[in-house]
User: Fold this.
Amino acid sequence: MSRIESQLTFDEWALDVTLADQGDCYAFVPICGDEVVWGVTMIQERCPGVLTGVVSQHGLEHAQQWAAEHPTWQVDFCQATDLTEVA
Assistant:
């Protein structure tokens, strides 16, 4: 019996703030072209790839409001290796 391994890779990711108001629950969703890939979600402290934006299933206005209230979101959630470029 052979073992088949697959690997999904995405170049860009967005911070999903849909549940941010409920106990600071954040997730990362991949971006493919100009589309959010809902359903492929990573729940972790830092983005698994290049962090390009903020999204919410409550809509654009919710995402924009959250981003305005959290102006350091890019530094707070980017990959740890990206912090060397910010400092």
